[in-house]
Design goal:
single chain, alpha+beta, elongated
């Protein structure tokens, strides 16, 4: 125990006696550990948030996209008829037409960042959308091409100063619509979010957006257990409608979540790798400072060897000093990383929380780099000839 305690005390004395140099040496470890923890926390937080958003739509959601301008399109009525024919497999389908940067006006007030969704009465149930007031799009609205609209809370605040808009008129790209409902707030009524949106019948949206066709359908299977069977049945139906599988795609939520997890995992690993490079740089910095320290303390090493200190004593002392520097830097880096990750996550609207595993790996890697890069200076110090060391000026 004495063989460890004494070198430990000497290492602490050396670090404390050269505070500025020690802090500068630790800086690399602090930045390295802090950046690893912060970036990994943000990456994992973003992954969890996106996964949660996808999962909230349910794992029994199938999305059909018809591709190509010249390709044959699906008639919404035929698609609805097909879905209704298999109630044991499907619970509903929503044709979807969408557009961005839509101009919405109420008198002199207007917005130009609004997103538009044209759909039917099933869309709200399929996507789990709730209303704050009024009603949603109805089947009658779709059939009669009624110019009715459900708006987000951002538009309520911007166009109506927060007053009840039900029954009021607004213009969407110059076309008048009657407000029949208000979407429940989901993103603090911010611009360019889900609260900055309008929903109208898809039969009206195809004319308003001048695209004329519906190319996206959201299909909900009866439950998770029949999703694969529902997907296979849908694929057979589309195979009869279209020639070639490149004309359409069918995406289910499980596939989307698996792809997302893989992509975000790769991105998180890249972020961790980039941050990890700074730990390598920190290790090189420790080695350089320790080499300077060995040079400055050459006479001290010579005196210790002259009075009986063995090579292992010198080696242990400098290794402990290197490890302590990286440990202290790692501890400070952990605190910095947790604070930085939490702060940046809050600014980005991401629930970034540093995992215990990430903290342990970052700290362990920091200590390992300190020992690895500290070995060369420690070994050099332990091999000094005591006579030549005592003569050193």
């Amino acid at each position: 125990m004495t063989d460890i305690v004494q070198p430990f005390k000497m290492a602490m004395k050396s670090i404390w006696g050269n505070k500025m140099r020690s802090v500068l040496t630790m800086l690399g470890s602090i930045i390295g550990v802090g950046s690893v923890i912060a970036l990994m926390a943000i990456g994992q937080g973003a992954t969890a948030q996106i996964t949660e958003q996808i999962a909230s739509a349910g794992t029994n959601l199938l999305t059909v996209n018809v591709m190509g301008r010249g390709s044959k399109t699906l008639d919404p009525d035929e698609m609805v008829e097909f879905i209704d024919a298999f109630p044991e497999l499907y619970s509903g389908v929503a044709p979807v037409v969408s557009g961005g940067g839509i101009m919405v006006k109420n008198g002199a007030k207007n917005t130009d960042s609004t997103s538009l969704t044209g759909t039917n009465e099933k869309y709200a149930d399929i996507r789990g959308i709730e209303l704050a007031d009024g009603r949603y799009i109805s089947a009658l609205d779709v059939a009669n091409r009624n110019r009715v609209v459900v708006i987000g809370t951002y538009l309520v605040n911007e166009l109506f100063d927060g007053a009840n808009p039900i029954g009021q008129k607004i213009k969407i790209n110059g076309t008048p619509f009657s407000v029949v409902g208000v979407l429940k707030e989901t993103q603090d009524s911010e611009e360019s979010t889900a609260d900055d949106a309008v929903v109208i019948p898809y039969s009206v949206a195809t004319r308003l957006l001048r695209n004329g066709v519906v190319r996206t359908y959201m299909v909900q299977s009866a439950d998770d257990e029949v999703t694969e069977a529902a997907k296979a049945q849908l694929k057979d139906y589309l195979g009869e409608k279209f020639v070639g599988s490149n004309t359409y795609t069918i995406t289910d939520q499980k596939e989307l979540m698996e792809t997302l997890d893989e992509a975000m995992g790769t991105m998180t690993a890249m972020l961790g790798g980039i941050a990890g490079i700074s730990l390598l740089v920190a290790g090189i910095g420790i080695m350089n400072i320790m080499l300077v320290s060995v040079t400055e303390r050459t006479r001290e090493i010579g005196i210790r060897k002259a009075i009986g200190a063995r090579r292992s004593h010198i080696l242990t002392q400098f290794l402990i000093e290197s490890a302590l520097i990286s440990c202290l830097g790692g501890i400070i880096g952990i605190v910095l990383g947790i604070w930085l990750g939490t702060t940046l996550g809050s600014l980005l609207g991401i629930g970034a929380t540093a995992s215990v595993g990430t903290i342990i790996v970052a700290f362990g890697f920091s200590v390992a780099m300190g020992l690895f890069f500290g070995f060369y200076p420690a070994n050099k110090a332990s091999k000094l000839n005591p006579i030549e060391a005592l003569r050193f000026e």
